[in-house]
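Title: Comparing notes on inverse folding

I've been comparing how different people in this forum approach sequence design from structure. To keep things fair, I'm posting one structure and asking everyone to reply with a full sequence. Here's the target:
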């Protein structure tokens, strides 16, 4: 019988973690595992990107607060669909491990994909108390970065035998360097600094916007060439638009909101920028590397595992507007650096971050976990 893997997340919507799940479930062979996804709150049409096999989605519509009704609904659903293995992801879904144990599921995996703005460094004692309480119920852990793996070992006291570090993969065929002329947006001599992601506080797009504004004010003659693109939706979008409007620079920027043609939009960029306050392993950095773009990123979390300063991009301190402006200027002034580092970026993506290797690593953890309880 084909093992049934049930993936549990807080919400399944546009995001790096969800994109990684799409890549995983579109790659794992259906004759090896079958899959279901349970969203504790809800899921969006992003789920339709899983098209290589049938995956059933369930939404529990968990209400905000501390009510336990969702646990009863989850327990009943698990008894109905009978998972062989439960895979939860991130803190928001971790409590489902207790429900899985109550439902008689012994093969379990928990994945850590990054931390949000409310606990950037994983030091909140209440959250860590929950993590430690759940640890006996988790058979194996998957961390998407060495930074998260080290934190799980040192702060949550996860035994090394339970720890597996697996980088996310990127589709190097879908995401590839630009061929021919730039798609319409800016003239051929422009340098386009681009970003893609949820426009929420932890991503800190206002810092990138302020750095771009500072650069244009200090070097007004550069305005003929510099362009800024930030693709994504969220509360920070209005903030960034207002900053650009107040500075009189809205005509140099494009903030289109959420888009579903990211591979094509990457073809518009010359340099990719990620100004986040913390990261696990950024899928958008991986996509940018595969697209042959040098990456300016903050030196936080897993970013330092993907971006080698001066080789395939540049690292700056989180929240450092002046430092970010200097990094933007360094590429604006030396287009040859973009070409050289972009070539390094593409090689880096192809050699280290293939989706088949990622999927096989996950399959190995699933097999090991299932084998322990068979």
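Reply #1:
Here's my take.
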């Amino acid at each position: 019988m084909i093992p049934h893997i049930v993936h549990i997340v807080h919400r399944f919507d546009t995001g790096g973690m969800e994109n990684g799940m799409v890549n995983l479930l579109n790659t794992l062979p259906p004759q090896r595992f079958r899959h279901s996804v349970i969203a504790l709150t809800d899921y969006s049409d992003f789920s339709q990107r899983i098209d290589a096999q049938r995956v059933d989605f369930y939404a529990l519509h968990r209400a905000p607060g501390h009510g336990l009704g969702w646990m009863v609904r989850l327990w009943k659903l698990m008894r109905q669909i009978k998972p062989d293995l439960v895979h939860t992801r991130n803190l928001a879904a971790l409590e489902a491990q207790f429900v899985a144990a109550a439902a008689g599921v012994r093969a379990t995996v928990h994945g850590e994909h990054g931390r949000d703005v409310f606990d950037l460094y994983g030091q909140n004692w209440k959250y860590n108390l929950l993590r430690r309480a759940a640890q006996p119920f988790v058979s194996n852990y998957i961390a998407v970065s060495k930074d998260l793996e080290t934190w799980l070992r040192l702060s949550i006291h996860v035994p090394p035998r339970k720890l597996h570090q697996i980088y996310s993969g990127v589709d190097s065929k879908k995401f590839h360097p630009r061929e021919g002329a730039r798609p319409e947006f800016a003239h051929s001599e422009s340098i386009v600094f681009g970003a893609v992601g949820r426009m929420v506080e932890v991503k800190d797009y206002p810092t990138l916007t302020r750095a771009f504004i500072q650069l244009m004010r200090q070097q007004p003659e550069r305005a003929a060439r510099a362009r800024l693109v930030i693709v994504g939706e969220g509360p920070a979008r209005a903030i960034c638009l207002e900053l650009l409007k107040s500075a009189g620079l809205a005509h140099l920027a494009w903030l289109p909101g959420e888009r579903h043609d990211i591979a094509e939009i990457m073809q518009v960029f010359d340099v990719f920028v990620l100004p986040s306050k913390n990261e696990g392993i950024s899928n958008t950095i991986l996509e940018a590397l595969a697209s042959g773009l040098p990456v300016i990123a903050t030196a936080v979390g897993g970013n330092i595992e993907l971006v080698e300063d001066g080789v395939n991009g540049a690292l700056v301190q989180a929240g450092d507007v002046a430092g970010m402006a200097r990094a933007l200027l360094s590429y604006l002034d030396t287009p040859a650096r973009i070409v050289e580092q972009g070539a390094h970026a593409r090689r880096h993506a192809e050699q280290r971050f293939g989706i088949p290797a990622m999927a096989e690593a996950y399959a190995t953890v699933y097999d090991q976990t299932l084998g322990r309880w068979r």
